[in-house]
């Protein structure tokens, strides 16, 4: 069996119950759309309502499996969230596989290594439930039980913002390009923790040489992304609305360089940053501002990796918590949490500028987006009707 591609799926995670930061949430779970990148149109094709608060979803590199956290207070009698696994059908249907504990509370982020052997979970939590876990993935795509001794790490510390930094709060956890190094932006301690991963056992340990990189006090690191082909990384800081640039060393450790504001100089209101992504061509970096309700655009210098401010573009709604760029770099989708919509923007490949399309989707509390090529499973044992259907989908 082989996999070919036709168009795109968009997977959307929503809050299904009211939250303190999203009091009107009434989402329907995980919704699946087809995306036409020529028009920006989104068409709902499937939904899975049998999950509570899937506030972050992550698709595997082969688009065959989807994983989702449930941001809940208790799972199986313990104060923690959980993670669900699904098989993605040809038409976007999600077949539930299994569910395992996240080993921490307020689960908020997932990442998968390219070989689909380990799933990282960031648990924002409170003191005692804040952690990062590495969960083994079976050959069939389901999740194995996490090893709570070797596969889970907790962090100590706090920051100057007493309301948000009373303890460590891992807000994401991402694999390095090689897959054997893990970076954890910790909003509560203003650190990016650097971990080593055994991909065969999913065991985590702190880097021996540099266990963390310290950022500015009160910055609140949230999400981190990598340049697609240069040795640079970028962390968006929630609390002070900045972006920290890093150079990646030969041992995969981060060295901070310069910091840039994600807000225009003339803005004096309240705002916090949320998400960050780089265009597939490596020239443009985007970050979302909640409060200013915008997407900031920067140019990336190809030699130094440093940023230069270009402009900002209104998100089309309120509280752009998450956004995503399609693999071709044509479309940028924004999930506006508090205006209950997803807005579609065209990306100018030469300038990076965004132009809002005529299409948007209304749905309650969208907070996580994944855009992937739509897989078509091609089996040599086609019936004649199946063969012609397969050819028609190839165009």
TrEMBL record:
Gene3D superfamilies reported in the protein's UniProt record: YVTN repeat-like/Quinoprotein amine dehydrogenase
Pfam families: Lactonase
InterPro entries named in the record: Cycloisomerase_2, Haem_d1_sf, Lactonase_7-beta_prop, WD40/YVTN_repeat-like_dom_sf
Top-rank taxon: Eukaryota
Gene Ontology, cellular component aspect: cytosol
GO MF annotation terms: 6-phosphogluconolactonase activity
PANTHER family: 6-PHOSPHOGLUCONOLACTONASE, 6-PHOSPHOGLUCONOLACTONASE-RELATED
UniProt similarity note: Belongs to the cycloisomerase 2 family.
Protein name (database record): 6-phosphogluconolactonase
Species per Swiss-Prot/TrEMBL record: Cymbomonas tetramitiformis
